[in-house]
Specification:
Structural class: mainly alpha
CATH class: Mainly Alpha
CATH superfamily: MFS general substrate transporter like domains
Mean pLDDT: 82
Number of domains: 1
Shape: globular
Distance between the termini: 43 Å
Amino acid sequence: MRMAVTFGFNQVISHGFGLFLFAALMPLMQANIQIDSWYLAIAGALTQIAYLAGAMLLGVIGPRVDSCRLLLVCGGITTVLLATMAWLSNPFIMLGVLAIMASSAAMSWGGIVELVTRHGRADRTATNLSIVSSGTAWGYGFNGLIILLVVPMLGWRSGWMVAAAVGLLTWIATYRLVKRLRVDRDTQDVDVTFAMGTKELFKTVLRERTAFLSCFTLLLVGMTTITFSTWLNTYLAELELPSALGGYTWGVIGATGMIAGFAAGKISDRYGHAIALLMIFSAFAASVIAFMYDPARFVMVAGFGYGLMYFPIWGIIAGWVSKQYSSKATMQINGIGMVAFGTGGALGNLLAGALQGSTGSLTLTYGVIVAISIGLALLAGYIYVSERKVKKTWVGGAAA
């Protein structure tokens, strides 16, 4: 549990703050810095491209990199950059800092996947990874508290300083943990991990069912969740809803994700990943449909569905892949999955910017999110049905 919680706080820093704090603070930063909706679209797309680049790099060089060292380096870089954001006023320099943090976030998660699948209990892989991935939800909760409690008193720059302080404490805790993991690794008689070459990795993702479906699922998840969170506060402002409503929604997202990470992981380990995917995707689709029907009334319901789906998905997918591949290979395939996720997020943000520019509203953007969320639920249903058929075929063949 200590490992899961510590790595979860690394997700707070890398994803909760590194990827999403800017979107949460952007409407408040506009009073001092000349940034508009197109800037947010460019920032969102650029960070997802950087996330994609970091994930691709990890998939190629990951097997040759020590995951403990990788985690410490990524955490240190992100903490320094979070503090730097508090002193910046140039929007273009901010774009560069956000891109570096996004790339670091991808590599940090890849290292975490490898460490958890290698050092954690095999029968708790999805649970542990879902708890860790829900650290992003803890970050959402912190973002909500920063918006509601810190920024009104001290200004938006103080929000970045608070994030950096949390990052420093997390880095110290991570350093102490990885020292123990290194000792455990050095006492092992045999290293049984297996990594794939770059060519073999891409062949696996394109040809093997589990690897392909896991990456395709993350592509669609990126298109829905990144677009939803990046533009949420801007859409609420467009609808002339109170700014505090966005803060409350981010808090709901964070609180839901904290619980969902453990619960969905347990369901995946006990009943199978297909059941877990079907449950969380169906809940997300229903919640965003309600949000489109009445945004003011159901925005926090959408936040609940978002938290229920987005944060556990990483642990469920990685746990699913780890059942068929080694810890290093799981990290590599998950790296390609993050590339797919980043691609989906970049496409979603660019589409949102184009639709907002042509229609003057984000309503159509959220309609597209609804359509894709329904597609995710149908995809989960397909995975569930097809795997039941495979299981029945295998059992029947064994019986014969």
